[in-house]
């Protein structure tokens, strides 16, 4: 197996057990590092946002759509909001809103648990294919101790589809990296949670093998995606499909910001100005757009 022309920043679809189990592998290097380091986020926020970007990539790869897939957490904890999204074409972005003092005061501040970091709230998945289609949204309570547990709870409660996920985000010598694996029973009459013996054995074997992947292996730049899949699943056979690239790409622009400002009354825009200049900063990519008084 080879990764073709792409060695990193990719989604690698595959299937196992003669097609009974499908999977997605995501490896993020420069892409996730670019997104995360645009902001001065504390370490726990960076790590959790990195995992969310990997999860967003995995989930988007299971869907057939043209548009935007969004993962969002909204909660009562030190990190009150986290948004990551994937746009058709492999464009990724992400942001978080947080109380820095509250994050710094957390016990185990280096690696707080998800409940400590987010508190209570919900995790939402949204697929938006444009104005002419109805948006799909799924919501689950933030009840797990990790982002993985919350996502798996969603599939168990809402999709009734057996799903196993592993995520990792880490800052190493080359910067931030993130990775993830997701396995699912193939859709169909026997792909729900009611498993026949043969399917159960295939699913059980696949999840046991996946669980042997260490968090550091998911983000190791010395280990290619193909090498990782071979190490985990070669005994039962693993079939890989074409990879898809992932790039950091925001959707903000001066024109978009200008159109938003046009919707404000003149008095509000004047109140926003400092020394005759309005500065609008994108919460995702941290780009700033300046508008002089003559443009108001």
Explain what this protein looks like in three dimensions.
By secondary structure, this protein is of the alpha+beta class. It folds into 2 domains: 10-248, Hsp33 domain (3-Layer(bab) Sandwich), CATH 3.55.30.10; 254-295, Alpha-Beta Complex (CBS domain Like), CATH 3.90.1280.10. It has helices spanning 30-36, 43-61, 100-104, 114-118, 147-159, 197-211, 215-219, 225-233, 254-262, 266-272; strands at residues 10-16, 21-28, 68-75, 79-87, 91-98, 121-128, 136-141, 163-172, 175-185, 238-240, 244-245, 247-248, 277-281, 288-292. The strands form 3 sheets. Strands 1, 2, 8, 9, 10 and 11 form a 6-stranded antiparallel sheet that branches. Strands 7-6-3-4-5-12 form a 6-stranded mixed sheet. A hairpin with a 7-residue loop joins strand 6 and strand 7 (136-141). Mean pLDDT is 89; it is low at 1-5 and 189-193.
CATH structural class of the largest domain = Alpha Beta
What does the largest sheet look like? 6 strands, antiparallel
Per CATH, the superfamily of the largest domain is: Hsp33 domain
Low-pLDDT regions: 1-5, 189-193
Structural class: alpha+beta
Fraction of residues in helix: 25-40%
The count of domains is 2
CATH architecture of the largest domain: 3-Layer(bab) Sandwich
Strand content: 25-35%
Mean pLDDT: 89
- Helices, by number, come to 10
Measured between the Cα atoms of the first and last residue, the distance is 57 Å
How many whole angstroms does the radius of gyration measure?
Answer: 21 Å
Q: What is the number of strand segments?
A: 14
SSE string: EEHHEEEHHEEHEEHHHEEEHHEE
């Amino acid at each position: 197996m080879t990764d073709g022309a792409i060695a990193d920043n990719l989604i690698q679809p595959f299937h196992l057990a003669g097609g009974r189990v499908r999977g997605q592998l995501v490896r993020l290097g420069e892409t996730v590092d670019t997104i995360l380091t645009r902001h001065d986020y504390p370490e726990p926020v960076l790590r959790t946002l990195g995992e969310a970007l990997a999860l967003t990539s995995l989930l988007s790869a299971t869907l057939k759509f043209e548009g935007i897939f969004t993962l969002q957490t909204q909660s009562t904890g030190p990190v009150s909001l986290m948004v990551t999204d994937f746009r058709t074409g492999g464009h990724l972005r992400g942001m978080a809103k947080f109380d820095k003092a509250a994050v710094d005061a957390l016990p185990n501040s280096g690696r707080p648990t998800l409940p400590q970091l987010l508190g209570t709230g919900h995790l939402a998945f949204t697929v938006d294919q444009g104005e002419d289609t109805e948006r799909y949204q799924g919501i689950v309570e933030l009840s797990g101790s990790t982002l993985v547990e919350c996502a798996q709870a969603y599939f168990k409660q809402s999709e009734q589809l057996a799903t196993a996920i592993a995520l990792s985000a880490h800052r190493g010598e080359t910067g931030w990296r993130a990775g993830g694996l997701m396995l699912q029973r193939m859709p169909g009459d026997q792909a729900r949670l009611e498993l026949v013996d043969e399917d159960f054995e295939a699913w059980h074997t696949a999840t046991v093998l996946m669980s042997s992947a260490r968090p550091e292996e998911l983000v190791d730049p010395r280990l290619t995606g193909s090498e990782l899949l071979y190490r985990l699943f070669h005994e039962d056979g693993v079939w890989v499909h074409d990879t898809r690239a992932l790039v950091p790409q925001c959707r903000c622009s001066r024109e978009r910001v200008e159109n938003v400002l046009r919707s404000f009354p003149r008095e509000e825009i004047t109140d926003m100005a400092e020394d005759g200049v309005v500065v609008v900063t994108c919460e995702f990519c941290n780009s700033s757009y300046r508008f002089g008084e003559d443009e108001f």
